[in-house]
Amino acid sequence: GENVEQHPSTLSVQEGDSAVIKCTYSDSASNYFPWYKQELGKRPQLIIDIRSNVGEKKDQRIAVTLNKTAKHFSLHITETQPEDSAVYFCAASTRGTYKYIFGTGTRLKVLA
Amino acid sequence: NAGVTQTPKFRVLKTGQSMTLLCAQDMNHEYMYWYRQDPGMGLRLIHYSVGEGTTAKGEVPDGYNVSRLKKQNFLLGLESAAPSQTSVYFCASSYGDRGQNQPQHFGDGTRLSIL
User: Fold this and answer.
1) In this structure, which of A26, B71, B92, B95 has its CB flanked by the most CB atoms within 10 Å?
2) Cβ A44–B42 below 8 Å, yes or no?
3) Would the CB atoms of B100 and A95 count as touching at under 8 Å?
4) What pLDDT digit, counting tens, does each position of A51-78 carry?
5) Which chain B residue's Cα is nearest to A40?
6) Can you tell me the distance from the alpha carbon of B25 to that of B52, in angstroms, rounded to the nearest whole number?
7) Average of pLDDT values for B30-46?
8) Which residues face A50 on adjacent strands?
9) pLDDT tens digits, residue range B71-111?
10) Helices (H) and strands (E) in chain A — how many of each?
11) What's the angle, vertex CA A102, arms to CA A101 and CA A108, rounded to 5?
């Protein structure tokens, strides 16, 4: 069945450094890739998404890149701040299937 | 505009008891979903609905039932609770667009413990 692998499971960075989280998907028909941030005890919230017709998308300090050939996509956070500390989930979805397959999450810790 | 609202927020059950979790959305979304979140396992899809009166199974449907009698509500039922169903349950909704998948909006979650 469809699968999304996410790495690393935990990531610690110094404040101001960059953080990169990578996901690999199995269904070559997947065409929509959202990223969610979940703070402790809170709901997952969408932070950025990308569709398969785009290779890169940026929103201030956050960017997502997509490599369809290799079937992987990555989240890049620059100039990290303590408030970036959270669990980040990637997901993949295929048009017409209505379902989203989530990665297992990455716990990011930004050290002040 | 409340978005996605889940009730209750917390619940403790004894093995064998039944209960219903309610999800309500006020965004006129077509699609609604129930997930469970367990440590180290991300979000796993239990059941979903693509419209009023329709439901479908997700990855982990066993032990759960759902109903979507009204477009704005999606109910998740546990007929006979088991300790393995201890988890945090999230409801989500999204616009229905056959052309392009849309972002999901999540509720605050229900923390359920089965003793």
Assistant:
1) B92
2) no
3) yes
4) 998 899 999 999 999 999 999 999 999 9
5) B108
6) 13
7) 92
8) A33
9) 999 999 999 999 999 999 999 999 877 667 889 999 999 99
10) 0, 11
11) 165
Q: Which residues pair with B33 in a beta bridge?
A: B48, B92
Of the candidates A43, A96, A105, the beta carbon closest to that of B107 is on A43
pLDDT at A96: 75
CB spacing of B45 vs A6 below 8 angstroms: no
Taking only the tens place, the pLDDT of each residue in B43-80 is 999 999 999 999 999 999 999 999 999 999 999 999 99
Q: Which of residues 40-99 of B touch A (CB under 8 A)?
A: 40-45, 48, 50, 56, 58, 90, 98-99
Q: Distance between the two ends of chain B, CA-based, in angstroms?
A: 36
CB atoms within 10 A of CB A28: 11
Q: What angle do CA B97, B52, B75 make, to 5 degrees?
A: 110
The residue of B43, B60, B68 whose CB has the most chain A CBs within 10 angstroms, and thus the best one to mutate to test that interface, is: B43
In single-letter form, the type of residue at position A67 comes to: N
Beta carbons of B89 and B34 less than 8 angstroms apart: yes
Through-space distance between the first and last CA atoms of chain A, rounded to whole angstroms: 41
